[in-house]
Amino acid sequence: GQEKMGTTWSICKMNMLLHGISHADIRNADTLADPQHKDENDELRRFDRVLANPPFSQNYAKTKSRDDGSGAKKKEPIAYPGRFHVWMPEKGKKADLMFVQHMLAVLKSNGRMATVMPHGVLFRGGEEREARQYFVDRGYLEAVIGLPSNLFYGTGIPACILVLNKDGAQ
Questions:
Q1: Per-residue pLDDT in tens (0 to 9) along the chain, 170 residues
Q2: Where in the chain is the domain with CATH 3.40.50.150?
Q3: Closest C-alpha among 93, 83, 38, 39 to residue 63
Q4: β-pair partners for 77
Q5: 57/121 Cα distance (integer angstroms)
């Protein structure tokens, strides 16, 4: 797995150790900008199953500020090789469906995934509608499970679980 927030990453590692799973490979980095699980050819590793609870409605953009070496910040595009075929948000847009696309990209051809998402991914319009249609048209979407509001600490918004399956998809 991979987690961007250092505190959450530490808690995850500790939880795995406390449950006797000492071999868990949990990395501390931004999944979207810097995926860590790669093979010896620097290609994304593929998995049979992916389970995730990414941050709800995180703002994300196609460009990122980087230090150019002189201390000045420089805007440059973030490369997302082979993962984001459908949609990437403009500045200030939500990255929920970017996480779904990343998870699909790392699934094996017969892989299956489930992810917790904010309820908004089911009805937000524009490019997000096109991304949802992409999942349906290719036969990836297997189930949508509605969850009640106030289920997660810190947010009262309702959530859902999306189940996507590559087995038999186009």
A1: 998 989 999 999 999 999 999 999 999 998 888 888 989 988 889 999 999 999 888 877 666 666 667 777 777 666 556 777 776 665 557 889 989 999 999 999 999 999 999 999 999 888 788 889 999 999 999 999 999 998 888 888 899 999 999 997 77
A2: 34-59+94-165
A3: 93
A4: 63
A5: 9
Alpha-carbon distances, residue 131 vs 85, 126, 137, 154 (angstroms) = 9, 9, 10, 27
Query: How many Å is the Cα radius of gyration of the chain?
Result: 17
Alpha-carbon dihedral angle through residues 8, 9, 12, 16, given to the nearest 10 degrees: -170
How many angstroms separate the first and last alpha carbons of the chain?
27
CATH of 34-59+94-165, one of 3.40.640.10, 3.40.190.10, 3.40.50.150, 3.40.50.720: 3.40.50.150
For the entire predicted model, the pTM comes to 0.83
Among residues 132, 149, 46, the alpha carbon closest in space to that of 97 is found at: 132
Strand boundaries in 57-152, DSSP class E = 59-60, 63-67, 73-77, 93-94, 107-118, 141-147
